Amino acid sequence: MIREQCSFGSSAKELAQVARDELCYHDERLAFWKGKKISVMDTIRTECLELDETNTAALEWHTLRRDGYDGWRQVLSAQMFFFGRG
């Protein structure tokens, strides 16, 4: 198929907006879970309990998603920053 004959249901601008929305969502969720982690850790420390920090699945999941959507946002917005966010 010739490139000029390709048809897409959404424009790059629309997809970039969706990527921005997803980036914001995962930024918010990441901030929420970081806050929860701090709160729980403070409670545990004040009660002199042992703390195992190996269960950070929510933080890792939202961090990966945020970074992935940030990459798509940059590509679709033609704003390529290879060393962090623009």
Can you summarize the main beta sheet? none
Mean pLDDT: 81
List the uncertain runs. none
Question: Gyration radius, to the nearest Å?
Answer: 19 Å
User: How many H/I helical runs?
Assistant: 2
What's the order of the H and E elements? HH
Query: What structural class do helix, strand and pairing data support?
Result: mainly alpha
**Fraction in helix:** 55-70%
**SS elements, strand count:** 0
**What is the CA–CA distance across the termini?**
35 Å
- How many distinct domains? 1
Observed structural traits:
86 residues, single chain, mainly alpha
Description of the molecule:
It is a single chain. With 86 residues, this protein is mostly helical. The chain contains 2 helices and no strands. Helix 1 packs antiparallel against helix 2 (57-76).
Task: Summarize the helices and strands and which ones pair or pack.
Blueprint: H1 12-46, H2 57-76
Helix pairs in contact: 1-2
Give a concise summary.
The protein is mainly alpha-helical and 86 residues long. The chain contains 2 helices and no strands. The model has no long low-confidence stretch (mean pLDDT 81).
